[in-house]
Amino acid sequence: MFDVKEIRKQFPMLNDDKMMQNKKLIFLDNCSTTFKPQCVIDEVMNYYVNETSNSHRGDYDLCFNIDQKVLKARENVARFVNADVDEVVFTSGTTMSINLIAYGYGLKTLKKGDEIIISEAEHASNVLPWYRLAELTGAIVKFVNLDEKGRVTANNLKKVITNKTKIVSFAHITNVLGYIIDVEGIAKVAHEHGAICVIDGAQSVPHIKTDFKKWDIDFLAFSAHKMCGPTGVGALIGKHHLLKMMDPFLMGGGMNVKFDKCGDTSYLESPAKFEAGTQNLAGILGFGKAVEFIKSIGIENIHQHEVELKKYMVEKLSKYDHVIIYNADSEGGMLTFNIKGVFAQDEATLLNSKGIALRSGQHCAKILNDFLKTPATVRASTYFYTTKEEVDIFIDALINGGDILDAYFN
Amino acid sequence: MPILTNEMMRAIIMDHSSNPIHKHEPKNDKYEKIHMHSDNCIDDIDVYVLFENDIVKDACFTGIGCTISTSSTDILCELIIGKSKEETLKIIDEYNHMLHEEPYNEDLLDEANAFKNTSKQAARIRCATIGFRAVETIIKGK
Predict the structure, then answer these.
(1) What ipTM describes this predicted complex?
(2) From the list A352, A361, A404, which residue is nearest B41 (CB)?
């Protein structure tokens, strides 16, 4: 039974005592990060209070216990996205995951004149690693044309992909507009041309069902903190044979088999090969718990709840001519908009003064603004714990919120 | 400096953001220029100052900014034209004190007094100081 009121009781950040500008906090910046349920906080705390030890470095029970718990977290994450357990590499998050692909796979396989295809709607973390890879290898970054709504489609990919294309990399759900792309279709087109398909799942894995094997994608990157987990931890999911041939990005303890004075080295198999140094163990355990928590809520319930809230916001706001909505029909939970004649940041400041937390600006997708023809937008993003009442307060603040300078003078 | 009412301060900010006097290209290539952008706002401006010996002969800016950054930078330009470098730095100092709710000399700030409530919206302090940081950097050197 999906009961928002009951679910909210598990989140300390949703308690009534959480205020901003002397108003009850309303958090509509869930694309940016999410609140943590008590069970995730407890799991992280428990590591520090009762279970502290390093992983795979000792002969004692505490250490063995952590090894088992890290394995369990890895299994949880693997099952959640339908991958094998040894296809899960723990990283610091989506950004590190994509950089690991660029440096570990890209640097090893790409050469001058090869192509990487991305879109104008991508987040910085799915643009800049590829720019760097292109700079280092002489490869070229190409852009697929977005359709009239701002979506990446398999058809448009067909128009730009060539046999020189080695990597295509797109967000499953883009972080500004929130359209869900046809991952399976896109992976098929990529493979037909001998390219690998990388999916940035930062905005999708926390919100919709992910099926790594069925979609036949090559790499998937996502972050724990956008799905009720701790910050500073995430995953790179990669197909066995790709992880096997990839080079590690960081060398050190925990990833090698042996090394000697002559410089001969051998490394452990993946995923250990990519996890040099002491990992963010508390974070990994919290990540595993967050996945369990999301599963207990039900990913379908999560998506359905967000879609309902999004439809409700669009229905209420489209009556007003001065509200410009950029993604009325996108399937993701975020609403991206502007108030006519008001600078996005000024609107966000006014909403801050009413206790409403949301994001304005370019949302790290700095190329997209040319497509949207505006320097900045405001983005309200919900999650499964957002209530209709909160959305009503947000809508009222947008419509009847007064002058932007009220934020300073009222 | 007469006491500014809230209505007067609002009017000053709105006026300088809707119709900034000094938001234009420099008149010649003798201006010193600095590019400024913000980590947490869209503000992305170029600030230009023309010196004649020690005196600010002219100041202007171009680019994109929110209401607070546009109006504060415009007012700053107005304030410093005709002032010496030392006087300009003093104005910037007093303004920073005001924004951080420290004692300050309001007599030096004229219309910039309108930003005294910025600390209520702490995320916008960076916007309210972007032009000031620009001019300070130009005078003190990078």
Answers:
(1) 0.87
(2) A361
Q: Which residues share a beta bridge with A20? A: A23
- Which run of H or of E encompasses B92? helix B85-99
Contact between A200 and A169 under an 8 Å Cβ cutoff? The reply is yes
Chain B residue with CA closest to A410: the answer is: B6
Tell me the catalytic residues of A: 364
Flag if A408 and B118 touch (Cβ within 8 Å): yes
Question: How does pLDDT run across A43-91, given as a tens digit for each residue?
Answer: 999 999 999 999 987 789 999 999 999 999 999 999 999 999 999 999 9
Burial class (CB in 10 A: 0-12, 13-18, 19+), A399: middle
Q: Which residues of chain A have pLDDT under 50?
A: none
Helices within A51-122 (DSSP H only): 61-81, 94-100, 107-109
**Sequential DSSP letters for A1-37:** ---HHHHHTT-GGGSTT-EETTEE-EE-BTTT-----
Would the CA dihedral through A278, A281, A282, A287 be positive or negative?
Answer: positive
CB A86 within 8 A of CB A270: yes
B2 confidence band (pLDDT: 50, 70, 90): low
- Stated as kind and residue range, the H or E segment containing A119 is strand A115-119
Q: Residue A165: enclosing H or E segment and its boundaries?
A: strand A165-171
From CA A183, how far away is CA A185, in angstroms rounded?
6
Answer yes or no: do A405 and B14 touch at CB < 8 A.
yes
**Domain boundary assignment for chain B:** 6-140
Question: What are the structure tokens assigned to B5, written together?
Answer: 């009412």
Q: Which of A345, A403, A408 sits opposite B120 (nearest CB)?
A: A408
Q: Which CATH number fits domain B6-140: 3.40.50.12780, 3.20.80.10, 3.90.1010.10, 3.30.1390.10?
A: 3.90.1010.10
Structure tokens at A122: 């991508």
For each of the domains in chain A, give its residue range(s) and CATH number, in order of start. 4-30+298-409 (3.90.1150.10), 41-296 (3.40.640.10)
Q: Which of A151, A142, A171 minimizes the C-alpha distance to A31?
A: A171
Spell out which residues of chain A touch residue B10, defining contact as CB-CB under 8 Å.
403, 405, 409
